[in-house]
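Worked problem 6 (solution included).
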Amino acid sequence: MPCLRILTNVPNSKIPKDFVNNIIPVLAKAVRKDVKKFSCVILGDCQLSFGGDSSQPGAVSTLESIGHVAPEDNRVIGREVSAFVQTHLGIHPDRFFISIYDIEGTNIVKGGDTIRE
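Solution. The predicted structure is:
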């Protein structure tokens, strides 16, 4: 169950209402998993600074996935997600940060049971 969480200083009013739905196919392609397995959360209006500058749009994010995240995978994921965020939120890739975690299915619970992917 891959999950992308984004915190940004972009105002909520400037985040497209369909952002979370539209980024899912990008994630599914980059992570090589079924669209139905993904979730995405975005929170705007955050106080955020890159290098002491909070005046420009920026975002920090985490992506958790059971597998399909390794050095070569992460380069693809980073390029695809950064490009999408730049296009749809106006955040330059230099001001967008992704922490990517490969997690064990036994550490994720959905429907009252751990995930077995």
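Discussion: The mean pLDDT is 94.
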